[in-house]
Amino acid sequence: MRNALLLLLVTTCFFTSFSIKAYSEIDYRITLKDGRQIDLTDTLTRRDLEAFSLYDLRIIRNAYYAKHLYIFQSDELTYAFLPYEWYLPLNPDVSTFLGSMDKQNIQKVQKAEDRLRNAIKRNKDNPLASQIIGVWHELPFMPAGFADAYQFFKDGVFIKNFNQMDCSKRVLAYVGTWEINENDSIKLTINAKREIVGGEYMPAAGSCVGEKELVGGEIVENHISKPSSIWYLSFEDYNLHDQYSTLKIELEKTYFKYSGNPKDYY
Question: Which fold has domain 22-124?
Fold first, then answer.
Protein backbone atom coordinates (compact mmCIF):
# COMPACT_ATOMS: atom_id res chain seq x y z
CA MET A 1 0.00 0.00 0.00
CA ARG A 2 2.82 2.36 0.94
CA ASN A 3 4.66 1.66 -2.33
CA ALA A 4 1.46 2.20 -4.31
CA LEU A 5 0.93 5.60 -2.66
CA LEU A 6 4.53 6.53 -3.35
CA LEU A 7 4.15 5.58 -7.03
CA LEU A 8 0.93 7.62 -7.22
CA LEU A 9 2.71 10.63 -5.72
CA VAL A 10 5.67 10.36 -8.12
CA THR A 11 3.34 9.91 -11.09
CA THR A 12 1.26 12.93 -10.07
CA CYS A 13 4.36 15.10 -9.73
CA PHE A 14 5.66 13.82 -13.09
CA PHE A 15 2.53 14.72 -15.02
CA THR A 16 2.17 18.00 -13.16
CA SER A 17 5.64 19.03 -14.30
CA PHE A 18 4.78 17.87 -17.84
CA SER A 19 1.64 19.99 -17.88
CA ILE A 20 3.68 23.10 -17.13
CA LYS A 21 5.81 22.60 -20.26
CA ALA A 22 4.43 22.44 -23.76
CA TYR A 23 5.45 19.31 -25.69
CA SER A 24 7.62 21.41 -28.01
CA GLU A 25 9.56 22.75 -25.01
CA ILE A 26 10.62 19.33 -23.69
CA ASP A 27 14.28 18.62 -24.41
CA TYR A 28 14.15 15.12 -25.90
CA ARG A 29 17.88 14.64 -26.23
CA ILE A 30 19.98 11.79 -24.89
CA THR A 31 23.69 11.98 -24.11
CA LEU A 32 25.88 8.96 -24.81
CA LYS A 33 29.00 7.87 -22.95
CA ASP A 34 31.39 9.83 -25.17
CA GLY A 35 29.37 13.04 -24.79
CA ARG A 36 27.64 12.96 -28.16
CA GLN A 37 23.94 13.78 -28.19
CA ILE A 38 20.97 12.51 -30.20
CA ASP A 39 17.85 14.64 -30.54
CA LEU A 40 14.87 12.27 -30.53
CA THR A 41 12.75 14.82 -32.40
CA ASP A 42 15.08 14.85 -35.44
CA THR A 43 15.13 12.50 -38.40
CA LEU A 44 18.24 10.31 -38.32
CA THR A 45 20.48 9.75 -41.32
CA ARG A 46 22.80 6.83 -42.00
CA ARG A 47 25.75 9.14 -41.45
CA ASP A 48 24.43 10.04 -37.98
CA LEU A 49 24.73 6.41 -36.89
CA GLU A 50 28.02 5.26 -38.39
CA ALA A 51 30.42 6.02 -35.54
CA PHE A 52 28.57 4.35 -32.66
CA SER A 53 29.18 1.06 -30.87
CA LEU A 54 26.53 -1.65 -30.58
CA TYR A 55 25.86 -0.56 -27.00
CA ASP A 56 25.28 3.05 -28.09
CA LEU A 57 23.00 1.96 -30.95
CA ARG A 58 20.93 -0.14 -28.53
CA ILE A 59 20.48 2.90 -26.28
CA ILE A 60 19.51 5.12 -29.23
CA ARG A 61 16.97 2.57 -30.55
CA ASN A 62 15.31 2.14 -27.17
CA ALA A 63 15.25 5.88 -26.51
CA TYR A 64 12.28 6.20 -28.86
CA TYR A 65 10.33 3.78 -26.66
CA ALA A 66 11.50 5.58 -23.52
CA LYS A 67 10.20 8.84 -24.96
CA HIS A 68 6.71 7.35 -24.68
CA LEU A 69 7.33 6.11 -21.10
CA TYR A 70 7.84 2.45 -21.92
CA ILE A 71 8.39 -0.02 -19.06
CA PHE A 72 11.60 -1.86 -19.95
CA GLN A 73 12.20 -5.43 -18.82
CA SER A 74 15.91 -4.62 -18.68
CA ASP A 75 17.13 -2.77 -15.57
CA GLU A 76 20.08 -1.54 -17.62
CA LEU A 77 17.76 0.28 -20.04
CA THR A 78 15.54 1.60 -17.26
CA TYR A 79 18.48 3.13 -15.42
CA ALA A 80 19.87 4.51 -18.69
CA PHE A 81 16.79 6.74 -19.14
CA LEU A 82 15.74 7.53 -15.56
CA PRO A 83 18.10 10.57 -15.34
CA TYR A 84 16.03 12.33 -18.02
CA GLU A 85 13.21 14.50 -16.75
CA TRP A 86 10.89 13.27 -19.48
CA TYR A 87 11.13 9.57 -18.59
CA LEU A 88 9.20 7.50 -16.08
CA PRO A 89 8.40 3.78 -16.63
CA LEU A 90 4.61 3.87 -16.87
CA ASN A 91 3.47 2.25 -20.11
CA PRO A 92 3.80 -1.51 -20.87
CA ASP A 93 2.84 -1.02 -24.54
CA VAL A 94 3.76 2.08 -26.56
CA SER A 95 3.18 0.66 -30.04
CA THR A 96 0.19 2.95 -30.62
CA PHE A 97 2.13 6.02 -29.46
CA LEU A 98 5.13 5.67 -31.76
CA GLY A 99 4.97 8.27 -34.52
CA SER A 100 6.04 7.66 -38.11
CA MET A 101 9.38 9.40 -37.51
CA ASP A 102 9.97 7.27 -34.39
CA LYS A 103 9.36 4.09 -36.39
CA GLN A 104 11.58 5.22 -39.27
CA ASN A 105 14.41 6.12 -36.89
CA ILE A 106 14.10 2.78 -35.08
CA GLN A 107 14.38 0.96 -38.42
CA LYS A 108 17.47 3.02 -39.34
CA VAL A 109 19.13 2.17 -36.03
CA GLN A 110 18.32 -1.53 -36.52
CA LYS A 111 19.96 -1.44 -39.96
CA ALA A 112 23.02 0.28 -38.46
CA GLU A 113 23.20 -2.46 -35.82
CA ASP A 114 23.02 -5.13 -38.54
CA ARG A 115 25.79 -3.45 -40.56
CA LEU A 116 28.02 -3.22 -37.50
CA ARG A 117 27.38 -6.85 -36.47
CA ASN A 118 28.28 -7.97 -40.00
CA ALA A 119 31.47 -5.89 -39.92
CA ILE A 120 32.39 -7.35 -36.52
CA LYS A 121 31.81 -10.88 -37.85
CA ARG A 122 33.95 -10.21 -40.92
CA ASN A 123 36.69 -8.80 -38.71
CA LYS A 124 36.41 -11.73 -36.30
CA ASP A 125 36.78 -14.22 -39.14
CA ASN A 126 39.90 -12.47 -40.44
CA PRO A 127 43.15 -13.23 -38.53
CA LEU A 128 44.46 -9.75 -39.34
CA ALA A 129 41.71 -8.19 -37.23
CA SER A 130 43.07 -9.63 -34.00
CA GLN A 131 46.41 -8.02 -34.77
CA ILE A 132 44.99 -4.57 -35.52
CA ILE A 133 42.92 -4.29 -32.30
CA GLY A 134 44.68 -2.16 -29.70
CA VAL A 135 46.72 1.05 -29.59
CA TRP A 136 49.11 2.00 -32.39
CA HIS A 137 51.56 4.81 -31.66
CA GLU A 138 53.53 7.04 -34.00
CA LEU A 139 56.73 6.36 -32.04
CA PRO A 140 58.20 2.99 -30.99
CA PHE A 141 58.66 4.37 -27.47
CA MET A 142 56.64 6.51 -25.05
CA PRO A 143 57.88 10.10 -24.42
CA ALA A 144 56.17 12.47 -21.97
CA GLY A 145 52.82 11.78 -23.64
CA PHE A 146 51.27 10.10 -26.66
CA ALA A 147 52.16 11.38 -30.11
CA ASP A 148 49.61 10.61 -32.87
CA ALA A 149 47.94 7.31 -32.00
CA TYR A 150 45.14 5.04 -33.22
CA GLN A 151 42.76 3.08 -31.03
CA PHE A 152 41.13 0.13 -32.80
CA PHE A 153 38.21 -1.44 -30.91
CA LYS A 154 36.81 -4.92 -31.57
CA ASP A 155 33.31 -3.50 -32.22
CA GLY A 156 34.56 -1.83 -35.41
CA VAL A 157 35.09 1.67 -34.00
CA PHE A 158 38.41 3.50 -34.22
CA ILE A 159 39.72 6.78 -32.81
CA LYS A 160 42.68 8.63 -34.28
CA ASN A 161 44.11 10.79 -31.51
CA PHE A 162 46.43 13.67 -32.29
CA ASN A 163 49.68 14.49 -30.48
CA GLN A 164 48.98 15.12 -26.78
CA MET A 165 52.08 17.30 -26.51
CA ASP A 166 50.74 19.76 -29.09
CA CYS A 167 48.86 21.86 -26.55
CA SER A 168 47.78 24.46 -29.11
CA LYS A 169 45.67 22.11 -31.26
CA ARG A 170 41.90 22.43 -31.49
CA VAL A 171 41.21 19.12 -33.22
CA LEU A 172 41.80 16.35 -30.67
CA ALA A 173 40.70 13.27 -32.60
CA TYR A 174 38.78 11.74 -35.47
CA VAL A 175 36.23 9.01 -34.75
CA GLY A 176 34.95 6.45 -37.21
CA THR A 177 34.61 2.80 -38.17
CA TRP A 178 37.07 0.22 -39.49
CA GLU A 179 36.78 -3.08 -41.27
CA ILE A 180 39.06 -5.59 -42.98
CA ASN A 181 38.29 -6.12 -46.68
CA GLU A 182 38.62 -9.40 -48.57
CA ASN A 183 41.94 -8.32 -50.11
CA ASP A 184 43.45 -7.86 -46.62
CA SER A 185 43.21 -4.09 -46.73
CA ILE A 186 41.76 -1.97 -43.94
CA LYS A 187 39.01 0.55 -44.63
CA LEU A 188 38.77 3.54 -42.28
CA THR A 189 35.70 5.78 -42.46
CA ILE A 190 35.80 9.00 -40.43
CA ASN A 191 32.39 10.12 -39.19
CA ALA A 192 33.08 12.63 -36.41
CA LYS A 193 35.61 15.18 -35.26
CA ARG A 194 36.40 15.79 -31.58
CA GLU A 195 37.59 19.36 -31.05
CA ILE A 196 37.88 22.24 -28.59
CA VAL A 197 35.58 25.21 -29.06
CA GLY A 198 36.38 28.49 -27.32
CA GLY A 199 39.17 28.92 -24.79
CA GLU A 200 42.21 31.17 -25.05
CA TYR A 201 45.87 30.80 -25.89
CA MET A 202 48.37 31.19 -23.08
CA PRO A 203 52.16 30.68 -22.86
CA ALA A 204 52.85 26.94 -22.94
CA ALA A 205 53.95 25.10 -19.82
CA GLY A 206 55.12 21.63 -18.85
CA SER A 207 55.78 19.15 -21.65
CA CYS A 208 53.92 21.11 -24.33
CA VAL A 209 55.54 21.38 -27.75
CA GLY A 210 55.43 24.95 -29.02
CA GLU A 211 55.03 28.34 -27.40
CA LYS A 212 51.25 28.47 -26.97
CA GLU A 213 48.77 26.39 -25.01
CA LEU A 214 44.98 26.39 -25.50
CA VAL A 215 43.37 26.80 -22.09
CA GLY A 216 39.68 26.37 -21.28
CA GLY A 217 37.10 25.87 -23.98
CA GLU A 218 34.62 23.04 -24.43
CA ILE A 219 35.28 19.65 -26.01
CA VAL A 220 32.58 18.88 -28.58
CA GLU A 221 32.11 16.14 -31.16
CA ASN A 222 30.71 17.12 -34.54
CA HIS A 223 29.67 14.81 -37.35
CA ILE A 224 31.67 15.27 -40.53
CA SER A 225 31.78 13.57 -43.90
CA LYS A 226 35.16 12.43 -45.21
CA PRO A 227 36.01 9.89 -47.91
CA SER A 228 37.06 6.46 -46.66
CA SER A 229 40.77 5.66 -46.55
CA ILE A 230 42.03 2.22 -47.56
CA TRP A 231 45.49 0.80 -46.84
CA TYR A 232 46.84 -2.68 -47.55
CA LEU A 233 47.82 -4.31 -44.28
CA SER A 234 51.36 -5.49 -43.78
CA PHE A 235 52.65 -6.17 -40.29
CA GLU A 236 56.39 -6.23 -39.65
CA ASP A 237 58.43 -7.06 -36.57
CA TYR A 238 60.31 -4.12 -35.12
CA ASN A 239 63.17 -4.26 -32.63
CA LEU A 240 64.58 -1.27 -30.77
CA HIS A 241 68.19 -1.75 -29.61
CA ASP A 242 67.51 -5.46 -29.03
CA GLN A 243 65.53 -4.47 -25.93
CA TYR A 244 62.06 -3.75 -27.23
CA SER A 245 60.14 -5.80 -29.77
CA THR A 246 56.80 -4.91 -31.31
CA LEU A 247 54.89 -4.76 -34.60
CA LYS A 248 54.79 -1.87 -37.03
CA ILE A 249 52.23 -1.03 -39.67
CA GLU A 250 51.97 1.44 -42.53
CA LEU A 251 48.82 3.56 -42.64
CA GLU A 252 49.12 7.21 -43.68
CA LYS A 253 52.50 6.89 -41.93
CA THR A 254 54.28 4.30 -39.80
CA TYR A 255 52.72 3.25 -36.50
CA PHE A 256 54.01 0.88 -33.82
CA LYS A 257 51.93 -1.50 -31.68
CA TYR A 258 51.80 -0.05 -28.17
CA SER A 259 49.18 -2.34 -26.64
CA GLY A 260 46.64 -5.00 -27.58
CA ASN A 261 44.05 -3.22 -25.45
CA PRO A 262 42.63 -0.02 -27.01
CA LYS A 263 41.68 1.25 -23.55
CA ASP A 264 45.37 1.54 -22.67
CA TYR A 265 45.37 4.93 -24.39
CA TYR A 266 45.06 7.57 -21.68
Answer: Methane Monooxygenase Hydroxylase; Chain G, domain 1 (1.20.58)
